[in-house]
Known about the structure:
Order of helices and strands: HEHEHEHEEEHHEHEHEEEEHHHEHEHH
Amino acid sequence: MKHLIASLAAMAAVTFAAPFAGAAELTLVSYAVAKPVYAKIIPAFKKKFKADTGEDVTFKESYGPSGAQTRDILGGKPADILATNLQAYIDPLVENGFVAADWSKRLPANASPAWSVIVLVTRENNPKGLKDWSDLIKPGVEIVAINPKTSGNARWGILGGYAALGQSGNAKAGEDYVRGVVKNTKTLVGGGREATDAFVKNRIGDVMLTFENEAKFANKVGGQNLTYVAPETNVRVEFPVTIIDKNVDKNGTRKAAEAFVNYLFSEEAQAIYAELGYRPQDAKVAERFAADYAKTTKLITAEDAGGWPAIDKALFADGALYDQAQASK
């Protein structure tokens, strides 16, 4: 009898434990327009992870306005990995104990596997001749804009013109740009993909500010031949990633989560970024795709503009320049 019970217990252990052995489920939270790139990266990573470890990994994914995603994680959203478009959206997670303070040093390139620039997406053949930041604030130009209160995409677009036109001590030109963009905004939406839908599918407005990679995506949907141009003085948009330390330790998913964020810097993943319109950090991959990108003459980093705490205080905090422009519209 004892032998029978032992045999049944062993069978039960095999029957019920085997499906879960070595398996991990990761929740990836990211900004609104990131879905196409991760739709390709995740299957490639799962295949490699299986080959390297013999283990399976599954994913839950959430895409939305980047600022809202960070607030949701702080509110309890069970994210293992955050892939965002603004360092400022990781800082609150560090301050509240969700992410280790050294997060940007744990991966190459300050934990940003790819970068981009801001472009002006126009109607076919650019009928209004929009080429630079100053063109956006001319009378009669209708902009599909993203709300910088919820979106990193929007903050980069506002910063681009503000920093470029405000160079050489010409602060008023930068301020006039912010006020002009607000004044010419035809439709204000919450996230980058919502902006693309409004501009491409609903044909609202003359121009949309967005990441270059999203402009490339927009040309693949809606059956339209959209034109886009990158202002020559532009911003270097970074896309930082981090594991959410507090959650991966609680979920027991650190091993798989760390493997995923490291994989983003592999040549295989870098090529996927490039194919989807991002500018990869890997120099060899970037060289292969160099002809695909709009030309710029000068790139301004967030650090060049004083760093995100100072930028947010000047432009996006309650009562700052963007709010003032909205109030006077």
